[in-house]
Amino acid sequence: MSRQRLAVLLVGLGLLLTAAPGAAAPSRASEEDAVRLLEEAARASRTLTYTGTKYVAAWRSSGSSTSLVDVRHDPRRGLRLSVSPTAASGDDAAAEDALVLAATTLDRGLLRALSRAYDLRVAGPGRCTGRDADVVEARRPGDPRAVAGRFWLDRETGLLLRREVYDDAGQRLRSSAFVDLETSGGSPVVALGSDRPVGGNGEEVGDRDLDRLRDEGWPLPEELPGGFVLFDARRTGGQDGVLHLAFSDGLSTTSLFVQEGELGSAPPEGFVRGTVAEQPVWVHDGAPERLVWAGADRVWTLVSDAPEPAVTAAVAALPHADLPDDGLRARLARGLSRLGSWLNPFS
User: Fold this and answer.
1) Contacts of residue 54, Cβ cutoff 8 Å, sequence gap at least 6
2) Radius of gyration, CA atoms only, the chain
3) 294 - beta bridge partners?
4) Using an 8 Å Cβ cutoff, are 171 and 60 in contact?
5) Fewest beta carbons less than 10 Å away: which of 178, 304, 319, 340?
6) pLDDT digit string, tens, across residues 129-178
7) Contact 151, 162 (CB under 8 A)
């Protein structure tokens, strides 16, 4: 058995990584300490040179997936990812999903959303990849026992070593962790690029531009149900192109792509007809989940790694129209294959 395959099995069984520190006495560190550690992790992810292998797993009602992703980061050249061909489950779409989840990083915008939606605390010490770590927990307000997410932060470098997201019942939705990691010195350079379009695509759209579009009849929300707030907006393809709105609660991200046009009955590749929130949509199951539908004379595409109830609530809150019988616009079909890679604009 290869080292990578063994790593997948061990991590999947929870044997390679130490358990969450729930049984230990909680730290008295304040929320400010938790935020400080997360901000240090965000800075380290931009300024350090590091290479390693990251385990990525996701669980949904439609199934689960696990992959190993090779990670390389240089502050001058950016983040580069590739799925290990010997330790991936599923097809090419699953491999693409793994890259999207592996690319998710901490960013100040996401940290603001996290602090707004959850109560943060330092839960205690932990270990990951043979390294000492501080474990930060995000807990649902009003229920101090309800942990929504955990972050293992390397005490030596500040890097995020492991990240887990849980549903309301405490079941894991997503898990990612380094199974091996090498680091070298930092740099004040913070520019982050990529070999592939992981994010940051298009021209930034400011608040004034969004207000103007709303005045022109674009139904563009500032929030989605479940505490998902708008933290980034971009446009690709000029004034007649696709508008990309990114929402997050700090743990999960929902990208909403809006384009003027019509939608027909021929599905994009990999999509099937389905119903979400009692509305007709095209569905591509996976993690992240992809949905396409029509409404208000526009085509809407939602790409999200959020829990399924949050996805359903977001779809219900947006405009809808019946699916017509003619064909899908070719321009939209060509662009859909790239949407999953834009889940996190700051990756």
Assistant:
1) 68, 69, 70, 71, 102, 176, 177, 178, 179
2) 20
3) 299
4) no
5) 319
6) 999 999 999 999 887 678 999 999 999 999 999 999 999 888 999 999 99
7) yes
The Cβ of residue 52 has, within 10 Å, a number of other Cβ atoms equal to 18
| E strand intervals along 188-278 | 203-204, 223-224, 228-236, 242-248, 253-260, 272-276
- Comparing C-alpha atoms, which of 29, 303, 67, 335 is closest to residue 177? 67
φ, ψ of residue 34 to 5 degrees: the values are -65, -45
User: Which of helix, strand or coil describes residue 140?
Assistant: coil
Tokens of 56: 């990525």
In angstroms, rounded to a whole number, what is the distance separating the alpha carbons of residues 89 and 21? 29
Residue 66 has pLDDT above 80, yes or no: yes
Non-local (6+) Cβ contacts of 124 within 8 A are 21, 24, 25, 26, 27, 134, 135
268 CB contacts (<8 Å, ≥6 apart)?
282, 284, 292, 328, 332, 333, 336, 337
